[in-house]
Amino acid sequence: MEKKTNSNDSSIDGILNPAKFSRDRQVDLCAECHNGIQRVGLKPSFSFIPGRPLGEYFKALPSFDSEHPDVHGNQVGLLQRSKCYLSSDKMSCSTCHDVHTSGQSLESYSLKCLNCHNWQNCAIAKKMGHQIANQCIGCHMPVEETNVIVSQTAGQVVHAKMRNHWIKIYPTGTGAKPE
């Protein structure tokens, strides 16, 4: 049987290994589902081929609120605004997320931050000491309400809440606090 490979040599017998994709193609693979609903299809639905640039298939529409886009609107786009992402050529969704495991604790995600950052440099470290090392995600990726997923139940409007993937220092008073 003849072995087949695609143009980026990450496929054998039609099985693609995203770990062998460039960072941009890895992120595109996640963005196929996690880049929000504000997009225009350039090719037919379900035609995306992993390892190809997502821009060949979808064109993102401009965000209505570029200062603080909706937390559900585009998790990948929010991550790509992060200084952590912009200052690294390796950081991707899989830096923190493992598709082979279910949800992890906030502490385990915070430990991933410490691969690049020192907890002692956090402004709150002087108050909290070493325990701040388990709180990176609570402050720098706060849970926020979305205006995209909204329901009305028992006369009340309920907004789904999601963790913001724009990793940054949020101003005090925005609801960001250690969890």
Automatic annotation (TrEMBL):
CDD domains: Cytochrom_C3. The keyword Signal applies. The keyword Nucleotide-binding does not apply. InterPro entries: Multihaem_cyt_sf (IPR036280), Multiheme_Cytochr_ET (IPR051829). Keywords: Signal. This is Cytochrome c3 family protein. The lineage of its organism: Bacteria, Pseudomonadati, Acidobacteriota, Terriglobia, Terriglobales.
